[in-house]
Specification:
heterodimer, A: 282 residues, mainly alpha, flat, B: 277 residues, Rossmann fold, 3-stranded antiparallel β-sheet, 9 helices, 29% strand
């Protein structure tokens, strides 16, 4: 028997998790639907002309995805806070790796799919409603020659809008989602109680420490000057008339750091979650 | 089956075990007795891989419990004192949890549930604490795990349920199974266990089979003040004086587990001297 991963055993674990949590999950999805609906109606009510323009849809989708996704992730290993639930969880005959993958399946993939499906279900309808309202207002009050431009349903997969090449920011927002969400999963194993708040505080402290380190500690060891455009290039200058000299670290360091921040943080957090789960005692 | 060597374990700076060694074999029901806070539950959780020893070695069925490998977990079932069962119908439990245990037997489960008088079509959400505990015990027994660890299993059970528990447990043992029951309610284990292990202050205070105890000790009620004075332990009651004496005549007496437990805690050296002789 494979002690690390067995597809059949993992699928059993997924089925067990679903059977035990499905009521809670279905109610949560209904609540998300309700909140999004309230928000859409609020936006349509306060803006009579272009209530669901591209930017509003983008902000709604990603704000909800990141906030609710992190909140859900921070609760995933909440059972470990309770002795009885923790014993029940840790003694289920599946490996830590399978338990970790089960968490990723629900908190990352299943949530993303469900949230996106709910968003589109509402967005498609609400964009039509909003266009109808906007068209009606345009008919009542528009200047000669003014053309009505209906809003379109945004596409998160191509993330393109007519005349607006903003796909890069979308790409980054998804990376932000995966990274933050994995950090909150790790937080739920580290801080079984008040996990969300504690993870937020920890992330803020890390960000604060990093900012302080880069802004105060590193310059203290450097000649006079400042960072130039990126943290991997530094402009040295000695006075007002000095044009300065820019020193740029090798390109591979830049590439490596960019790769690390964009793609490696989430897997690192997943790995840390796995080891934390492995060493968990109750 | 379970081999514990020189176990050291502490909660932060509070030591619980300082060099505990113990061997348990299949085909027995072990009674782990001791006062509250002596480390019974801690020992069970170390055996189950839920706590890791600070020092020493625990080997269960050839596994290191701390690694919590699936092959180990499907052979060890724990009924904790504080347990959790999801609020799902009983059939869901069978459908989604039972497949993790390759030796799970549904017929056995139905039989235990029936003996415990739990309706098979009920939902765990609507059950009382005692009923849920009986479901967990039934599930553990039907899982046919080689090692069944039970922490205060009779807590929360009413008088009839305790009797059902003893009946079910007595029929559940086989030569491949090892059952460890930890409790401070020693009366509940009478006629059930075949070896008694008493833990006190993190050490094994007493560890004997029921056969050995019956051979070496005699339990009876006495009105003879001289006999009471000579006894290894005595306790006055309305019926007379309950006493424990060395069984020199080879007579058969009914083991009074509670009396034995008190005798070991309060007058351990004199009891031990009988077994050393």
């Amino acid at each position: 028997m494979n002690q690390t991963f067995d597809l059949n055993r993992w699928w059993l674990l997924v089925g067990k998790h679903w059977s035990e949590n499905r009521k809670k999950y279905i109610l949560s999805l209904i609540a998300i639907t309700g909140l999004l609906l309230v928000w859409f109606f609020f936006v349509v009510a306060i803006d009579n002309y272009r209530p669901l323009k591209f930017e509003v849809q983008v902000a709604t989708y990603f704000f909800g995805l990141i906030l609710v996704g992190c909140l859900y992730s921070s609760l995933f290993f909440g059972d470990l806070a309770s002795k009885s639930k923790g014993i029940n969880y840790l003694t289920v005959p599946a490996s830590h790796f399978e338990k970790m993958l089960c968490a990723l399946f629900f908190a990352t993939i299943a949530f993303l799919i469900c949230y996106t499906a709910i968003f589109y279900m509402l967005d498609i309808v609400m964009v039509k409603v909003s266009n109808a309202i906007a068209y009606s207002n345009w008919q009542k009050n528009h200047e000669v020659g003014e053309i009505f431009e209906p809003d379109e349903v945004m596409n998160i997969f191509t993330a393109e809008q007519k005349g607006n090449n903003s796909h890069n920011i979308f790409h980054y927002l998804f990376l932000v989602y995966f990274t933050l969400q994995s950090a909150f999963i790790l937080g739920s194993v580290y801080f079984p109680k008040f996990s969300f708040i504690k993870t937020v505080i920890t992330l803020l402290l890390i960000a604060l420490f990093f900012s302080f380190f880069m802004a105060k500690v590193i310059p203290a060891f450097m000649p006079e000057g400042n960072y130039y455009r990126a943290l991997t290039s530094y402009n040295f200058y000695s006075g007002n008339n000095d044009p300065g000299k820019i020193v740029i670290l090798p390109e591979w360091i830049n590439t490596f750091l960019e790769f690390l921040i964009k793609f490696a943080l989430a897997p690192i957090f997943w790995l840390a979650t796995y080891f934390r789960l492995k060493e968990k005692e109750i | 089956m379970i081999d514990i060597q020189n176990l050291h374990f502490a909660y932060r700076k509070k030591p619980v075990f300082t060099g505990l060694s113990l061997q348990l074999q299949p085909g027995h029901i072990y009674g782990l007795l001791g006062k509250n806070g002596t480390g019974k539950s801690t020992l069970l959780r170390n055996i189950a891989g839920l706590l890791f020893p600070d020092k020493g070695k625990i080997e269960v069925l050839g596994f290191n419990p701390g690694q919590r490998q699936p092959s180990f977990l499907q052979e060890v079932f724990m009924v904790p004192e504080e347990f959790h069962l999801p609020d799902v119908p009983l059939q869901y439990l069978l459908h989604h949890l039972a497949p993790f245990y390759p030796k799970f037997n549904k017929t056995q489960f139905d039989q235990y549930i029936s003996e415990f008088e739990i309706p098979a079509d009920s939902t765990l959400q609507n059950m009382s604490y005692g009923q849920k505990k009986k479901v967990l015990i039934s599930f553990g027994l039907a899982s046919n795990a080689s090692m069944l660890l039970m922490d205060e299993p009779t807590n929360g059970l009413d008088i009839m349920s305790k009797s059902q528990f003893r009946k079910v447990m007595a029929g559940a043992l086989n030569e491949n199974k090892c059952i460890v029951i930890s409790t401070h309610q020693v009366k509940d284990l009478e006629n059930l266990i075949d070896r008694i292990t008493i833990i006190d202050q993190g050490k094994i205070l007493f560890d004997q089979t029921i056969d050995a105890i019956s051979r070496k000790l005699s339990f009876r009620i006495s009105f003879d003040s001289e006999e009471v004075k000579q006894s290894l332990y005595s306790e006055s009651s309305l019926r007379g004086n309950a006493i424990i004496t060395a069984n020199t005549e080879g007579e058969e007496s009914k083991l009074d587990l509670e009396l034995l437990y008190k005798a070991i805690i309060l007058n351990g050296p004199s009891i031990h001297s009988v077994f050393k002789a």
